[in-house]
Amino acid sequence: MDCTLPAVAEELLKEIKKAFEETSHVPDDLLLGLKFIFGPSAVPALDLVDQHSVTRVVAPSGRIAYQVLGSSGKLYTCYSSCHFCTCPAFGFTVLQKSESLLCKHILAVYLSQAMGACQELTVSEEQLTSILLAEEEEEG
Asked: What strands, in cross-sheet order, belong to the sheet with 64-69?
């Protein structure tokens, strides 16, 4: 299942990527757009990117997950392909209340992709499975 963000959010992220590639920073007008579209998640997500808190975890099969070290020190697993995060804020604010498009962790994933700020970690299939199952055990 491949979900997409609303077109305006997708376009904003593309513009951020383009601007960052050209100038190595994000212009104020795009930062304002980020705040307008993503609301209170925008600034904390940018902080996570600045702290290099996003790690792209890749297995030999090509399966990819992202781990984001949250401001609380807890590690959350995010799936950009379906816009999902294991944090409580995602479950409550995004899924239950529909108050936000994304949590700060997933937004940090998208921003770190746009800015080339993801750390890379290659793991075995078994290690990736353990990461994914550890999240399930914590939830259940």
From this structure: 84-85, 75-79, 64-69, 54-58, 119-122
Residue 106 lies in a domain: yes
139 in a domain, yes or no? no
Q: Are strands 119-122 and 54-58 parallel, antiparallel or unpaired?
A: parallel
Q: Residue 37 domain-assigned?
A: yes
Q: Name residues whose C-beta falls within 8 Å of residue 92's C-beta, 6 or more positions apart in sequence.
A: none
Whether 104 contacts 37, CB under 8 Å: no
The 10 Å Cβ neighbour count of residue 117 is: 17
Q: Determine the structural domain holding residue 11 and report its residue range.
A: 7-131
The residue ranking higher by pLDDT, 137 or 105, is 105
- Total domains, the chain: 1
Q: What is the pLDDT of residues 72-111, one digit of tens each?
A: 899 999 988 888 899 998 988 888 888 888 899 999 999 9
140 within domain boundaries: no
Which own/partner contact pairs does 9-12 have at CB distance under 8 Å and 24+ positions apart?
9/37, 9/38, 9/101, 12/37
